[in-house]
Amino acid sequence: MSRKIIAAGNWKMNKTVNEAVEFVEALKARVSDADSEVVVGVPFVCIPGVKKAAEGSNIKVAAQNMHWEEKGAFTGEVSGPMLAGLGVDYVIIGHSERRQYFAETDETVNKKVHAAFKYGLKPIVCVGESLTQREQGITAELVRYQVKIALLGLADSQVKETVIAYEPIWAIGTGKTATNEQAEEVCAVIRDCVKELYGNDTAEKVRIQYGGSVSAANASELFNMPNIDGGLVGGASLKLDDFEKIAKYNK
Ligand code: PGA
Q1: Probe ligand 1: pick from 100, 232, 243, max atoms within 8 Å of CB?
Q2: 177 alpha carbon to ligand 1 midpoint, in Å?
Q3: Which residues are part of the catalytic machinery?
């Protein structure tokens, strides 16, 4: 299996431009020998500074959202060409906070995923169940449904380049990480769903991350599970020591 582990920070609405640049300047040397692909998901306004700070390093940059249209009357929104113009590599799409607070749906997620590819950005698509849904026993069904709609209409070659982040909502920012087995079980369901839709070759190539209270202490075990190809990391990605350890999960 040759899927490269991806350690992606999701800073959410944290850090000013100066703080972001300072952080990435310091992170560069710390992760230069990381085995994982290192990504920082930063606020829009931090992107130019962070891209410059990351120059010549192995750190890639993600936006946390995008609009699906190229341009137009969408006050406050940012488009694919704008991000591509800044040299952004990845874009996080459909994070549960966007679904919860900004009314994003599986359908808008699908539109954004298509737009990401259209403008040369790689999507990190977030899916995951709430605590109630887990207790109702519908996690697998729900996550399959989310994945199916998110990927609708994509070519095999695009699905292979997509990163899917399994993020149980009850584990986000709560310090309550899913167990390795719980995370592995759902990531395996997602891979199986991709296999059903796109075949074995694509399913073996797509990277599936776990997200939800990933920490320096639990990253290694999680990332070594057979179907977990890294993590989408919130809180711990804001701290240099922690994120360095996560990026170097096997050292
Ligand atoms: P957390 O956030 O690591 O702080 O739980 C993860 C995420 O929301 O992507």
Answers
A1: 232
A2: 10
A3: 95, 167
Sign of the dihedral defined by the CA atoms of residues 183, 189, 194, 200, in that order = positive
| Amino acid at residue number 93 | I
Question: Per residue in 179-204, pLDDT tens?
Answer: 999 999 999 999 999 999 999 999 99
Residue pair 158/122 in contact (Cβ under 8 Å)? The answer is no
Q: Is the CB of 176 under 6 A from ligand 1?
A: no
Strand positions, DSSP E, the chain: 6-10, 37-41, 59-63, 90-93, 122-127, 163-166, 207-211, 230-233
The CB of 123 under 6 Å from ligand 1? The reply is no
| pTM listed for this prediction | 0.98
Ligand 1 atom nearest to CA at 171: 5
User: Max CA-CA distance within the chain?
Assistant: 49
Tokens of 38: 């290192």
Phi-psi region of 183 (alpha: psi -120 to 50; beta: other; left: phi over 0): alpha
